[in-house]
Amino acid sequence: MDEKCISKAVIRRLPRYYRYLGELLEDGVERISSNELSTKMRVTASQIRQDLNNFGGFGQQGYGYNVQYLYTEIAKILGLDRTHNMIIIGAGNLGQALANYVQFEKRGFKVVGIFDVNPVLKGISIRGNEILMMDELPQYLKDNDVQIAALTLPKNNAEETADLLVENGIKAIWNFAHLDLEVPEDVIVENVHLSESLMRLSYNLNCYVTEHKK
Ligand code: NAI
User: What are the coiled-coil residue ranges (predicted)?
Assistant: First the structure.
């Protein structure tokens, strides 16, 4: 299987398949047809077949999909079958909320370090991680195997922090700061902007209200 060939659109949908399949497993469901999955997930059965065919077609005619197998294969594709060590830069409200969220670890994303510039925060423990100061970061990255850095600091400081992370070998940035980071080609940035999601919600709400006034 060549992971590079799976389109970004499909990859974007995979976490949702993974979540639904996980729920099916919890309910003891062993196999499911694309039609049943389609009703549950409210996407067309042909979309499901197309998406899942992308990586080898786990379905069998007349049998449907083996839920456990599909769940495991999607986990492998998403890299959830291994642990990713993650650090958080900016130990304010958002950084601490992320550090406190236990479910990331269950998915293999382990928060191993939290950094800030505010000396008042130094040494405060969040789920077993003492907040470290930014000047400790380069050495920390030399001594520890870290794959992901979450940026939860003010946007004015985000670009230079991203540069520092990249200089010290970080290849994946989970960016919450509201700016588009400029990074080398071999560095991956995943932006999470809750306000953009809210704007889409607002748009759809307005559309819905307008439609129903007609
Ligand atoms: P906050 O003010 O509570 O925390 C920011 C922390 O970053 C502070 O502890 C501060 O000392 C630290 N900091 C400042 N400069 C730093 C540097 N150079 N290196 C390391 N740490 C540094 O702010 P909050 O509410 O936690 O928000 C953090 C960031 O996330 C802001 O940029 C905010 O706009 C953004 N945000 C993004 C959301 C999203 O959906 N993308 C949602 C909420 C906030």
Answer: none
